[in-house]
Each structure stands twice: as C-alpha cells, then as structure tokens.
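Input for the complex:
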Amino acid sequence: MRVVYSDAHRGHDGAKEMRYDQMIPMCENPGRMDAIVAALRAQGHRDFADARPFELNSILRVHTPGFVAFLEQCWPLWKAEFGAGGFATAYTFGMRGMEQQPNESVHSMLSCYTFDVCVPFVKGTWTAVRSAVDVTLTATQEITNGATAAFALCRPPGHHASSDLAGGYCYVNNAAVAAQTLLDQGANRIAILDIDYHHGNGTQRIFYDRSDVLYASVHAKPEQEYPFLMGYARETGAGGGEGFNLNLPLPLGTTIAAYREALAAALSEIRAYGPDVLIVSLGVDTFVDDPVGGFRLETPDFLTVGADISALGLPTLFVMEGGYAIAALGTNTANVITGFNQR
Ligand code: SP5
Ligand code: ZN
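Predicted:
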C-alpha cells in the first residue's frame, strides 16, 4: 500500500491546549507523523510518496469561501494585533438564537468559525492544513488510478471540521474532501468509516442530508466524551440522507470484544450500501493508554481492526485522524495498515 506524506505539516506546532485547569503542549503535534513513519518502516513498508500540490477548489467543494478565507488569514490578522509570540484562539462561541455576523476583527472570525479551544492558529497552520489536503488528494488519486488501497498520512486531522466550523484539532475535513473529489470524478457512492475514538461531528454534518455518502462511526458516547453534543445513535440522517448516517456510540472502558461487534455492524451496513470506495477516518486514540481517549484497545487489536476492514474487499483510502499516545502511536497505526494488507 502506498503511503503518501508531506513534511509541510511541521510548522503547525508550538501552541497549547486546555486540560482541566492547565495549559499543556498540544497532543496533536509533529512528532506524531515521525512516530508513524518510523513504525511503518519498521514493519517493512517501503512505498512512500510525496504529496503533489492541489488547487483550493477541492476544499471549496466542501467548505464555504468565507471559512477558507478565515483559515488563510487568521494568523496574519492575529499577529498584526498581538505579535508572533503566542497563538490565535477564540474568546466567545456561537450565541444561539441571535443573528451573528463576523466582521473585520479576527476575534469575530474566530468566534464565528471555530467551536472549541482545540484549534489554535500559528504561523505554519495554514501551510500544514493545505499540505494535509495535498496528501489526501494525492492518495485519492492512487485509488482513482486503480490502486486497491492507499494511506494519506496527514496532519492536522479533519473529522471534527464541517463546512464552516473548525474544532478538535481539525481545520479542513480531509476525508470529506476526498469523498467529494471521488464523487466529482464519477463515483456514485462513497462510504466513510470513522474509527477515531471521537465522533466525527464535522463529517456527519457535511453529509447528513445526502445519500451519496454513507457515514458510519464507532466512537465514545456523547454522554461521556467530546464532542459531547453529537454522536447519538438516533442521528440517522435527514431528508434524502435519512438512513445514511450510522452512529455506534460505546461507553468508556470499551475493549476489543465489544468494539469489534460495533465495527462489524458498521462494516455490514457499508457492505449493503455497496460503495465504489471506502474511506477510513483512521484514528487510533481508541488505544488504552491514549492521553485523550478512554477506550481500552491494545496494540495487537489494531491488526484485527485492519483485517476486519480488509475483509470488505473494497478499494480503501485510509486518512489519518487522531492518536496521541506517542510511544505506541506508530505501531498502533502501522498495525491497522499491516493487518489490512495481511488478509
Ligand atoms: C481528531 C481528534 O482526535 N480530535 C480530538 C479532540 C479532543 N479534544 C479534547 C478533548 C478533551 C476532553 N477529554 C479528556 C479526557 C481525558 N481522558
Ligand atoms: Zn479523536
């Protein structure tokens, strides 16, 4: 399986995130990619390719122009006001029930276009966000060219981002951009299987009223985990998209046995849907020692997860999402890929 990667993510670094009453270094950092590349090499993966550059138009098929302009301009605007020392983040969030309009102030834009305190902007953020899309679209091209599988090894991740909202370390929804691109190139149906520990609220929202993309997610239940307000099983799609959104929430402490049952339910729904391509939003923050997660998957379990997905026999594009237990992240991620290949 070809692994597509770019070093251009590195400048998205140096910000901090809130953990209860403390500011801690971001769990979503450049070292994650180094760990994954090293583990893939250690497991014998040799087919690495650099990302090629793509135009903004594929991003604009999924995200609004105002939102994309914000992503590009946020840091320069912030820097002009506060200098280059810190990072840009919002002070207020949506004030439900009243008309809300962003203006030329960067604060208004951050308030309008972000939904939490986990999407800081620094000098290298926009370059990294674009590189993640380049990685994803280069890997997507592999599938279009007839490859049975490809791995977009990208950061920052994407599944919490929707058409005009960034959050949860996510700015542009890489998997959604891949899905829309495949549809635009002639595919009829795309399935997105989201195995990140967190519910992919952004991906769900983007495709919620559509039947040409099936979204299926196994994640921690909203009563116990971020993003807290979405990811309930009762969210099954709307309008023409009714029946094409499948949420499989699980409790904290879930181990591989119960996890695998939920995964099997998602895979069986995907099989029945008959997609042209399967996109896997690949998060391994389901690992027992993940600092952000609360499930209990062990390192060998990720081989099983990869093999279970492989049994569908679909052209499969893996797009990297979360996973923050840096010591095991590489092996856990590589195990999904190796398990997929071994079947
Ligand atoms: C892509 C992705 O995995 N984004 C995750 C964003 C998580 N944001 C922080 C959640 C903090 C609350 N949970 C702390 C639980 C500690 N066990
Ligand atoms: Zn996650």
